[in-house]
Design a protein that fits this description.
The structure is a single chain. The protein has 185 residues and is of the alpha+beta class. It has a single domain (4-178), classed as Glucose Oxidase, domain 1, CATH 3.50.30. It has helices at residues 18-21, 57-60, 120-124, 134-137, 154-159, 174-178; strands at residues 8-12, 55-56, 61-62, 85-89, 99-102, 141-145, 169-172. A three-stranded mixed sheet has the order 1-6-7. Strands 2-3 form a two-stranded antiparallel ribbon. It has a two-stranded antiparallel ribbon with strand order 4-5. The two termini are 21 Å apart.
């Protein structure tokens, strides 16, 4: 079956702020259970509700980050799970400061891969995430809504006919619906 004609294109310029302003940016799950540090330092729970800003300065930046939650899907078996944020030192417990620890593997949740992630030559050359140009990662983007039973193939990419000058393409896939909470098959 030819998957390319099934791709539905949605042009999502950063100026389309209305989609992110009123409701959650991720239809696959709610923001409930996002990580906060509670007064006892247990990691998640009863602290003040802190919500991510989905949008800063209307029409300029839309945050597409998935919420970091304790049961966040990890790429590798045996990856760090459980409380992501742990309060190591607490003023409420007599410390002179509050000190939090954030524990997660770098291939969890919304992320961008380092050039050396899948290329040993790049890895050996020290091409880490901090070598990426942030100007390339921020700005208007073409959003491709991939049908949930379709793989992204070279043929599908050719079918897109990405307009000249587009520097960023985002793919909304089945993982958006899964909310990064179940292991991919």
């Amino acid at each position: 079956m030819d998957a390319a004609p099934l791709l539905a294109l949605l042009l999502a310029a950063v100026s389309l702020s209305a989609a992110a302003a009123g409701d959650g940016a991720h239809p696959g799950y709610s923001d409930e259970g996002t990580c906060t540090v509670d007064a006892a330092g247990a990691g998640v729970g009863s602290g003040p509700e802190l919500r991510r800003l989905e949008e800063r300065r209307p029409g300029r930046i839309i945050d597409i980050t998935h919420a970091y939650v304790p049961d966040l899907l990890a790429f590798a078996p045996g990856a760090v799970t459980g409380p992501l944020v742990h309060l190591k030192e607490s003023m409420a417990n007599g410390s002179e400061y509050n000190l939090s620890e954030l524990r997660l593997e770098c291939h969890m949740g919304t992320h961008v891969d380092a050039p050396g992630h899948m290329n040993q030559g790049h890895f050996a050359a020290g091409l880490d995430v901090d070598t990426l140009d942030l100007d390339v990662l921020n700005g208007p983007a073409l959003l491709v809504d991939v049908p949930r039973d379709t793989n992204i193939t070279a043929e599908a990419m050719e079918f897109l006919n990405i307009p000249r000058g587009v520097r960023r393409v985002l793919f909304r896939t089945l993982n958006t619906d899964r909310g990064w909470r179940t292991v991919a098959s």
